[in-house]
Design a protein that fits this description.
Elements: E1 2-7, E2 14-22, E3 28-32, E4 35-40, E5 46-49, H1 57-67, H2 71-79, E6 84-86, H3 94-102
C-alpha cells in the first residue's frame, strides 16, 4: 500500500489532509482528512461516498482533480449511473488503519 499527499496544481507542494492511497490490488482512493471520498477500482469503476462526495468546496476541488472533471460532470455521471454511490466510511476510516502502518507520517504537513 502506498499513501501520498495530493499536490497543489499551482505550487507543486504537498497539500495537507488530502491523500491518494494506492492498494496492492491496483485500486486508487481519494481521502480528505479522515474520510474516503472516492475509489477508482483496478477495473476503472468509480465509487463515490454517498454522504461525503460533495461535502465542501475544498473536498470538491481535490475530488475534481482525482476524477479529472468538474462537479457538474460528476453529478451527470452519478445521474447516468456511470458512478456508483456507496457508504465508503461504514467502518474505521482507512487513514486510522494506515497510521498504524506508517507511524503517523501521513499527518506531515509542510509549511505552505
Amino acid at each position: 500500500m502506498k499513501v501520498e499527499n495530493m499536490r497543489s496544481t499551482k505550487s507543486g507542494q504537498a497539500v495537507c489532509n488530502q491523500f491518494i492511497i494506492r492498494d496492492n490490488q491496483g485500486n486508487k482512493y481519494f481521502q480528505s482528512y479522515r474520510t474516503i471520498i472516492a475509489v477508482r477500482t483496478n477495473s476503472g469503476r468509480i465509487v463515490l461516498d454517498t454522504n461525503s462526495w460533495d461535502y465542501s468546496r475544498t473536498t470538491g476541488k481535490y475530488r475534481n482533480e482525482f476524477l479529472g472533471e468538474n462537479t457538474a460532470e460528476t453529478r451527470k455521471n452519478i445521474k447516468a449511473g456511470v458512478y456508483q454511490l456507496a457508504d465508503l466510511n461504514n467502518g474505521q476510516p482507512l487513514i486510522e488503519t494506515l497510521l498504524k502502518t506508517y507511524e503517523g507520517q501521513l499527518w506531515y504537513c509542510p509549511a505552505i
